[in-house]
Amino acid sequence: MIGTDTISRVIGQDVYDESGEKIGSAAEVYLDDETGQPEWVTVRTGLFGTKESFVPIRNADLTDDGLRVPVSKDQVKDAPKIDTEGHLSPQEEEELYRYYGMGGGTDTAQTMTTTETTTGMAGTGTTTGMADTGTTDTDTRGTVGHDTSGPTTDDAMTRSEERLNVGTRSQEAGRARLRKYVVTENVTETVPVSREEVRVEREPITDANVGNAMDGPAISEEEHEVVLHEETPVVEKEAVPVERVRLDKETVTEQVQVNEGLRKEEIEVDGVDETRDRRI
Fold this sequence. Notes:
This protein has helices at residues 7-10, 73-77, 90-100, 105-115, 210-213, and strands at residues 14-16, 22-32, 38-45, 51-56, 61-62, 67-68, 119-122, 268-269, 278-279. By secondary structure, it is α+β, with helices and mostly antiparallel strands. Strands 1, 2, 3, 4, 5, 6 and 7 form a seven-stranded mixed β-sheet that branches. It has a two-stranded antiparallel ribbon with strand order 8-9.
């Protein structure tokens, strides 16, 4: 469904009928002054786009390809010839409702007749036509003046602006993990070792040892052996626990500046002082 927020996207789009056949291109969108909603779109047809026809936009769909309207190309081709400059009169709109077989056209025309409102163009720079129908600055709703860009509401215009709401959200920034691996390093230790060495001792023959000296033959060959010992380093390794390692988290807070452009509406007042315009 086409709303007032998508009017700017409609203008200039290719227009296709209900079967997908291209009709032409959208030129202007007309709003219903009573509801403020888009009611008609003018479609440029012909070889050079010089012919414009009114097509209902109430139940149209805006897609990536263009605007699809719920009527056929032949219907648009033979639509009533109505001047696209200015506004639709209640009689012209009733004729279009009747031609396209749109229900509620008679009631709408009656409403327009009693309230003296018509359908105006949106986004084309024209006025709503209140002066053309002979109405005063105070319409039947009792408001002062009238809106030239949509349905008349009250005697005030709302000015809006964007406000910046800044918050935070949590998201994953990375992952930390513990990984254990084996490395080999050389360790040097000094170990004291002892060994036995042979020392030759000579003692003279005395009365104390003469007995041992004379034991055995006087002259003979003899061999005496002594076993020597020594210590050698012995290396033995064992695995022992030395520490426990774990991952822990802590929260740190820092200040981050956010820069964003905000839109706001401004209101110009024309006609209050003819020598200058005043901006609010």
